[in-house]
Structure formats: structure tokens, C-alpha cells
UniProtKB/TrEMBL annotation:
Stretches with biased composition (Gly residues): 365-381
TPR repeat boundaries on the chain: 108-141, 142-175, 176-209
Keyword Glycoprotein annotated: no
Domain SGTA homodimerisation, residue spans: 7-72
Protein name: Small glutamine-rich tetratricopeptide repeat-containing protein 2
Length: 381
């Protein structure tokens, strides 16, 4: 006898045994007893059971189990499973109900397009509002979060930009612009090492992205600059002698209140010296060299330029000294004494690491950490 056939016989025997139990426990009326006896005989005939054969009955019996006990166990198990699956079913139903419709997605795309146009117009607050409306309609679109992250960065809200960029990457880990947005936000927060990591991950997904390559170079340069400046920054407050200093230990307030510096500025502006300095090819070459190599001009380079020497002469109080003063300054430069902090206040200023950092940011031409140099790539999505 095959296993399925035997199992069918055992199940039939279980039914017969349950009917016997129902009669024994008076679960049915007297008329019902007669009906059950007929039912037992019909079941026995259908499944070829010999209820008079004690050996067969013993082999097929379910005892000590019975169908009613099996059924009770089944209903208890189902009750437990039903209780545990009810929240999941409710969640599934809720999720299904909250799933955006095609109309919702179309409206969300319209809000995104509106946000992109607002970013082009530099209306970042309005752009953020437009992207938020898109997200409220469709919350599973990585591009919506990525674009809002870029708008947050442009408006200076870098912490929110980080949150949105990470959310975009949770939705789509292959969204390369998510890493670009994350790198931009981290750069804005001054977390240059983390920004480098984000840009590298983005370039793994999009190796030919020129904007991200440029952003990575900027982040690497800034990281190297911060590492190189850290010892100087630590000593700058002691050198400045002022607790009110800012910009890495540089007392900018004292600098701008320095009468000599203000006199220098007045002389230069009155005599066209500033315009002459900025139009000087040597100065332009220094700026171009710095932009291409990152190498800050030395004091010797700066002091050997006649216009810069004239600025130094004016600042040190020798601006009224005529040609003799000019010749003396050039002679000092030639002999290497132009960089002396004791004889030239400008040299002292140029040797201040915080001031040199200001000069570096000026020569970069991007105003420091502006997002324009970080290759955000606009709102191309």
C-alpha cells in the first residue's frame, strides 16, 4: 500500500473514531446516533475499511490522538498566526493605499521641473518648497531628494542637504549624483575627508563625470591645506595676542583698525595704486601660477615686484619719501631684507598664516568654499 493510500485510510479511520467518540459522549441525539452509524458504514465501504478487523483498525487508528484534538490544535495555531500577521496585513494595506498613483507621479514631476527652474533663477527657498511638494506626493524617488539636497547646499543649509543626500542613496544606492550632493554638503560643513570619500564613491559609479572629478580635486586640495595649516592655526592665537581673533587665529578686527593699514589703503585708492597692482602682469602671473600649482608666492617674489614694494613703502610710512625711499626699498629687497618683520609691517602681515590663507582664497577666485567650485552639476535631473 502506497503512503498516500495509507494516509487516506488513516484519515478515514480518524473520522470513524471521531464519530464513535461523538456517540459515546452523547454529542448527538438518538436520531443522530443512527445517522452516524450509517455514515460510519458508508465511509468504511468507500475507503475499503474492515471495521471488524481489529488488526487493521489498530494499524490505522490515530489514537491516542483524535480528529477533534487535532482540529483544536489547528484552530489555536491559526489564532496565533492571525494575531501576529494582522499588523503586517494592516501595514501592507496601508502601504497599498498610500502608494502614489500615476497622477501623483505626474504632478510630482511637475513640481520637480518647477524646482529645477527656480534653482537656475537662484531662488533656492522656492526651489526647496517645490521639491518638498514633489516628495510629499512621491517619497520613493531618489532624484527628488538629491535635487532638494543641492538646493539646501546652495542656500547654506548643509546639514539638511546631508540628510537628503543620504535619503536619496538609501532609495537608490546606484544614484551617483547622490554622492555628488553628499560631497558638496560635507564640503560646506568643512568635513573635507568625508567629502573626498563621497566623491570617490560617486566616481566609482560615474567615472567620467568631469564635475565630480573637479570637486574631488578641490576637496583633496582643501584637505591637504587644512592638514598643512593645523600646526600654524594652533599657534596663531598666541601670536596674535588677542582673544577676539577670527579666521584661524588672525585678529582681523585689529588689522582693520591699524592706522598704518588704513593709510596705505587710502593712499593706494587715491593714487590708483590698487588698480595698477591688479593690472600688473607680474601679479597676474603669480595668481595664475597659484591657481595652476597651488603654490603660494614667496615673500621674495612679492617684495621684488615694484608695485608691491610701493604698497609696502606706503604702508610703512615711507610713501612720502620720494625716489630715495623707493630706491632704498628696492635695495632692501635685493639684499633679502624686505621680508623682515621688524623693519616692514607688511612683511609681518604676509608672514601671518591666517592672512596668507585669505590671500590663497582670493587667488583661487572662488571666494573660499563657494558651491560653484564644487561641481554640483546644477539640477540636471
Amino acid at each position: 500500500m502506497t503512503a498516500p493510500a495509507e494516509n487516506r485510510k488513516r484519515l478515514a479511520m480518524g473520522i470513524v473514531e471521531y464519530l464513535d467518540k461523538a456517540v459515546a459522549e452523547s454529542l448527538v441525539s438518538s436520531d443522530g446516533v443512527e445517522s452516524l452509524e450509517i455514515a460510519k458504514q458508508c465511509i468504511a465501504d468507500a475507503f475499503e475499511l474492515n471495521l471488524e478487523d481489529d488488526t487493521q483498525v489498530k494499524e490505522l487508528s490515530l489514537k491516542p490522538f483524535s480528529l477533534d484534538k487535532v482540529f483544536d490544535a489547528y484552530t489555536a495555531t491559526q489564532a496565533k498566526l492571525g494575531a501576529s500577521s494582522a499588523p503586517a496585513a494592516a501595514t501592507s494595506s496601508s502601504s497599498s493605499a498610500a502608494a502614489p498613483s500615476d497622477e501623483d507621479r505626474a504632478r510630482a514631476d511637475q513640481h520637480k521641473a518647477e524646482g529645477n527652474q527656480l534653482v537656475v533663477q537662484r531662488k533656492y527657498a522656492e526651489a526647496i518648497e517645490a521639491y518638498t511638494k514633489a516628495i510629499e506626493l512621491v517619497s520613493d524617488n531618489a532624484v527628488f531628494f538629491g535635487n532638494r539636497a543641492a538646493a539646501y547646499s546652495q542656500s547654506g543649509e548643509h546639514e539638511k542637504a546631508v540628510e537628503d543626500a543620504k535619503r536619496a542613496l538609501e532609495i537608490d544606492s546606484a544614484y551617483s549624483k547622490g554622492y555628488s550632493r553628499l560631497g558638496l554638503a560635507l564640503f560646506g560643513l568643512g568635513q573635507f575627508e568625508e567629502a573626498v570619500d563621497a566623491y570617490k564613491k560617486g566616481l566609482e559609479l560615474d567615472p567620467n563625470n568631469k564635475a565630480m572629478q573637479t570637486a574631488l580635486e578641490s576637496a583633496n586640495a582643501k584637505l591637504a591645506s587644512e592638514s598643512a595649516r593645523s600646526p600654524l592655526s594652533a599657534s596663531a592665537p598666541a601670536e596674535s595676542g588677542s582673544s577676539g581673533s577670527s579666521g584661524g587665529g588672525f585678529d582681523f578686527s585689529s588689522l582693520m583698525n591699524n592706522p598704518a593699514l588704513m593709510g596705505m589703503a587710502q593712499n593706494m585708492m587715491a593714487n590708483g595704486g590698487l588698480e595698477s597692482l591688479m593690472n600688473n602682469p607680474a601679479v597676474s602671473q603669480m595668481v595664475n601660477n597659484y591657481r595652476s600649482s597651488g603654490q603660494t608666492p614667496s615673500m621674495a617674489d612679492l617684495m621684488s615686484n615694484p608695485d608691491i614694494m610701493n604698497m609696502a613703502r606706503n604702508f610703512s610710512g615711507s610713501g612720502e619719501g620720494g625716489n630715495n625711499g623707493a630706491q632704498g626699498s628696492r635695495a632692501d629687497s635685493a639684499s633679502g631684507s624686505a621680508g623682515s618683520a621688524d623693519s616692514n609691517p607688511l612683511a609681518s602681515l604676509m608672514n601671518n598664516p591666517a592672512l596668507m590663507n585669505m590671500a590663497q582664497q582670493f587667488m583661487r577666485g572662488n571666494g573660499g568654499q563657494g558651491s560653484g567650485g564644487q561641481g554640483s552639476g546644477g539640477q540636471g535631473n
